[in-house]
């Protein structure tokens, strides 16, 4: 069986093609046979995002030196934020003036903006770069937002970018009891997400309720005077 290279000291060489290596056997007659590829396996270890309560978050900051990164928009941040935190918003106000954005912004402002005081936003294109410019991948970061959704989204982006020590407050700052953190602003951390007409709904209800109760008591205890007042009212 002439021509079988395995019995005549064949020349063994290797060729590299990107991430795959091939074994090449050269036989006595110059024939080349390619063996099975040797595949390299790359193992990537991902960091695990730590979701904690407000009390546990306080311990991470005090005992383990976690830095607090507030990813809310500027309006909520201005209403109330944790003292000495870093403000790097995941979303920023959308001021684009193309036709589609203008229509969406108007619809948003007529509902969510009016009733809940929510800003029409878009993803912050500088978010990741802003974090990287202030923190190393080994930094311990506690991400906070109002409800917990934006901080979870920010944590995923940072994890994919190589950050290894990330924690988020479950349910966000709305679950933080007054006094847990030193805060700055005109309201409590848990109320920083409240704005628009919903904030005065309770006050309006209280005023109307008081007026109705007073009117009922007046009619009950002073029926004659109430009747005279009704007679003085202009008829339609």
Number of strands: 13
Q: Helix-strand pattern, N to C?
A: EEEEEHEHEEEHEHEHEEHH
Structural class: alpha/beta
Estimated helix fraction:
25-40%
Strand percentage: 15-25%
CATH level-four homologous superfamily name of the domain at 50-195: Rhodanese-like domain
User: What spatial form do the alpha-carbon principal axes imply?
Assistant: elongated
How many helices?
A: 7
Strand order of the largest sheet: 5-12-11-6-8
Please give the alpha-carbon distance between the first and last residues: 119 Å
Query: What's the oligomerization state?
Result: single chain
CATH topology of the domain at 50-195: Oxidized Rhodanese, domain 1
Low-confidence stretches: 1-27
Compute the gyration radius: what is it?
33 Å
CATH architecture of the domain at 50-195: 3-Layer(aba) Sandwich
Biggest sheet record:
5 strands, parallel
Mean pLDDT: 76
Given this structure, which CATH class of the domain at 50-195 is correct? Answer: Alpha Beta
InterPro entries: Rhodanese-like_dom, Rhodanese-like_dom_sf, STR9
Transmembrane segments: 204-222
GO cellular component, one term: chloroplast
Protein name: Rhodanese-like domain-containing protein
Q: Which labels suit this protein?
A:
236 residues; alpha/beta; Oxidized Rhodanese, domain 1; 5-stranded parallel beta sheet; 4-stranded antiparallel beta sheet; 7 helices; 38% helix; disordered N terminus; transmembrane helix; Rhodanese-like domain-containing protein; membrane; Rhodanese-like_dom_sf; Rhodanese-like_dom
Task: Give an overview in words.
The protein is α/β, with parallel strands linked by helices. It has a domain at 50-195: Oxidized Rhodanese, domain 1. It contains seven helices and 13 strands. The chain has helices spanning 54-64, 74-79, 99-116, 127-134, 149-160, 198-221, 223-232; strands at 11-17, 20-26, 32-34, 38-39, 50-52, 67-70, 80-82, 86-87, 91-93, 121-123, 140-144, 165-169, 183-185. A five-stranded parallel sheet has the order 5-12-11-6-8, with helices on both faces. Strands 1, 2, 3 and 4 form a four-stranded antiparallel sheet that branches. A two-stranded antiparallel ribbon has the order 7-13. β11 (140-144), α5 (149-160) and β12 form a beta-alpha-beta unit. α6 crosses α7 (223-232). The longest helix is centred in the last third of the chain and has 24 residues, at 198-221. The model is unreliable at 1-27 (pLDDT under 50).
